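Appendix B: complex inputs.
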Amino acid sequence: GAVVSQHPSRVICKSGTSVKIECRSLDFQATTMFWYRQFPKKSLMLMATSNEGSKATYEQGVEKDKFLINHASLTLSTLTVTSAHPEDSSFYICSANPGPTAFFGQGTRLTVV
Amino acid sequence: DAKTTQPTSMDCAEGRAANLPCNHSTISGNEYVYWYRQIHSQGPQYIIHGLKNNETNEMASLIITEDRKSSTLILPHATLRDTAVYYCIVRVADNYGQNFVFGPGTRLSVLP
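Resulting structure:
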């Protein structure tokens, strides 16, 4: 099946710094990508929809200035967590739908210390 | 998208078939049943999907009742590596611009 690659798989950063997570579609073009957040023992929650060449669409309650999304090409979307706080520590996952099925990245475990 | 109901958790003995049920009584005629699984600290993995006919692939079989109000995912010979959270999702297949909505899923533990 299609491959979505996410990088890094885990990152530790200090409070107040920013961290960028990359999501790449390796063998297809993705005009739309999705970013999810997952807390321990909870299900995936959609944060935002990333649209190539236009602004991302954020879900209610997600701060767009804190979670910056850039979808500059048909194969790359990035999520930047700005001014990170310990409560931003979570598992972040991206996905894309090259067809009727969705394919997901490996996830990024973010720990803010 | 129609809502689904799954048991919170299930156990299965290694080597036996794992049968994971899903209720979707409000499914619409053009909605497919999808199954994904998520192994700990990984992204979800696609397993199988179907509309009304039973489907089988190298990973699993999907049995959909005639009225389409419920389905069962069957892992024919469960291994320890099948321990994961299994998500049943109902959605229109050609809605490529729409995200997949995940419920709590079923936590399957395959026991040695």
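Strands of chain B lie at 9-13, 18-23, 31-38, 45-50, 55-56, 61-64, 70-75, 84-92, 106-111.
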